[in-house]
């Protein structure tokens, strides 16, 4: 009987491990609505969320204590636009805005001390529509990257990208095509979505033009000084994709990559992470029973946590996801019913440097599109749960002990 008790205790401990694993998947995370801001990103320290002020459609920032702050309040006339990326502490913010009394979309840089300044733009002739967007900024707030383009009846549409220093902002009437201080530099990318803290490594998409009438982007990083491009791997059968974010040290990139299934003749696109040291692709849905189309938008400082969105049901409803240490999770599935409380978490756009705080958008319990701030409990990153193979060995050991105890008990009665 003594050995039988040991076996039963062993199985009880194993059951506790399994229950703990299940509980960790639904730890006590914190979900907070972001009132008044359509969020697009979050600072590395997790304190500042940026996006669009929903009351005025102007660029804005949001903090738990201060609520929403309009960034373009000092500009004359009406403005609409969005803030796209903050520096590490949220003290510098970049984005794009449009003045409704004329002009075009313009890139901006905002600081707590200097307010909002516009990127100097070249003069265009009549009948030309142009747009500029500053898409990301280094952790220090010193160097930004973005895209600009122009369309006209005569010349059609053209798209270019830039890397800009702070002195490029301030006088929107200055033509920066040949600035005396070389404050703005063109890049060789089709899209410039992210910049590492070195102020040189840029992530986005390179030009791919299979015909004069059609072009698309391939995932790529570029050196902002030499303009050397490194194309990143995609899935078999395609070279399309895009980089949306970089780790500060340029070790990892995230975005999406496409592929083509020759058996079904179907193309697909999935959220991915690239290891830039080895130029290898990591499918974030590897091992998922039914991989879903989607995109990764943001990555933590060390590259271990990635967030984004996937199309997760027959109605193509988008659902926010988090990938951590090789495990893919739909965000709604890791929250308890009490924490989720009727929310639909549709997209995750940003993540803090430590991977604990995520910002995104979805439907609140009333069905209204609302941004949200999710703080993951430490248990989500807590004690490692044994791999399935290890659990199988533990289970076999427990069953073996119980079986041995029964045989031992039977022999003792026979004796």
Structural account:
- The chain has helices at residues 2-25, 331-334, 337-340, 388-414; strands spanning 30-34, 37-42, 49-53, 59-63, 67-70, 79-86, 92-99, 105-111, 115-118, 129-137, 144-152, 156-164, 184-187, 191-195, 201-211, 214-223, 229-231, 241-246, 252-261, 266-275, 280-283, 294-299, 305-311, 318-324, 327-330, 344-351, 357-363, 369-375.
- It contains four helices and 28 strands.
- The radius of gyration is 26 Å and the shape is globular.
- Helix content is 14%, strand content 45%.
- α1 (2-25) packs antiparallel against α4.
- By secondary structure, the chain is mostly beta strands.
- The model is unreliable at 1-25, 175-182 and 384-415 (pLDDT under 50).
- The strands form seven sheets. The chain has a four-stranded antiparallel beta sheet, with no helix packed on it.
- A hairpin with a 3-residue loop joins β11 (144-152) and β12.
- The two termini are 15 Å apart.
Coarse morphology: globular
Number of helices: 4
Helix content: 10-25%
Determine the oligomeric state from the structure: single chain
Average pLDDT works out at: 81
Number of beta strands: 28
Low-pLDDT stretches are 1-25, 175-182, 384-415
> What class do helices, strands and sheet pairing give?
mainly beta
Distance between the terminal alpha carbons, to the nearest Å? 15 Å
Radius of gyration in whole Å, from Cα?
26 Å
Largest sheet: 4 strands, antiparallel
Strand-residue fraction?
over 45%
Strand order of the largest sheet: 1-28-27-26
């Amino acid at each position: 009987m003594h050995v039988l008790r040991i076996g039963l205790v062993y199985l009880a401990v194993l059951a506790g491990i399994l229950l703990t694993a299940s509980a960790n998947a639904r730890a006590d995370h914190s979900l907070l609505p972001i009132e008044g801001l359509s969020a697009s990103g979050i600072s590395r320290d997790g304190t500042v969320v940026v996006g669009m002020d929903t009351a005025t459609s102007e660029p804005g920032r949001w903090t738990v204590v201060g609520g929403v702050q309009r960034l373009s309040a000092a500009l004359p006339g009406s403005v609409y636009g969005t803030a796209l990326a903050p520096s590490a502490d949220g003290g510098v913010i970049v984005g794009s805005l449009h003045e409704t009394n004329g002009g075009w979309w313009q890139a901006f840089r905002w600081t707590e001390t200097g307010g909002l300044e516009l990127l100097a733009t070249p003069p265009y002739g009549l009948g030309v529509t142009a747009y500029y967007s500053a898409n990301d900024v280094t952790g220090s707030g010193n160097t930004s990257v973005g895209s600009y383009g122009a369309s006209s009846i005569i010349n059609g549409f053209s798209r270019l990208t830039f890397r800009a220093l702070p002195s490029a902002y301030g006088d929107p009437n200055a033509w920066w095509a040949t600035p005396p201080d070389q404050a703005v530099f063109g890049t060789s990318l089709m899209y410039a979505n992210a910049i590492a803290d070195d102020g040189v490594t840029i992530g986005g998409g390179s030009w791919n033009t299979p015909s004069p009438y059609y072009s698309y982007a391939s995932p790529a990083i570029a050196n902002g000084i030499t303009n050397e491009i490194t194309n990143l791997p995609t899935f078999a059968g395609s070279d399309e994709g895009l980089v949306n974010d970089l780790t500060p040290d340029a070790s990892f990139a995230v975005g999406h990559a496409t592929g083509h299934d020759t058996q079904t003749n179907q193309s697909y696109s999935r959220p991915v992470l690239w290891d830039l040291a080895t130029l290898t692709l990591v499918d974030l849905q590897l091992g998922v029973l039914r991989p879903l189309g989607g995109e990764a938008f943001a990555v933590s400082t060390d590259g271990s946590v990635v967030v984004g969105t996937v199309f997760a049901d027959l109605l193509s409803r988008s659902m926010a996801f988090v990938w951590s240490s090789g495990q893919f999770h739909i965000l709604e599935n890791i929250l308890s019913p009490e924490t989720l409380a009727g929310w639909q978490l549709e997209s995750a756009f940003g993540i803090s440097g430590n991977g604990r705080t995520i910002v995104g958008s979805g439907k609140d319990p009333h069905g209204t599109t609302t941004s949200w701030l999710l703080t993951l409990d430490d248990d989500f990153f807590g004690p490692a749960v044994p791999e399935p193979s290890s659990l199988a060995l533990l289970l076999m050991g427990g069953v073996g002990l119980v079986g041995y105890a029964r045989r031992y008990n039977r022999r003792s009665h026979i004796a």
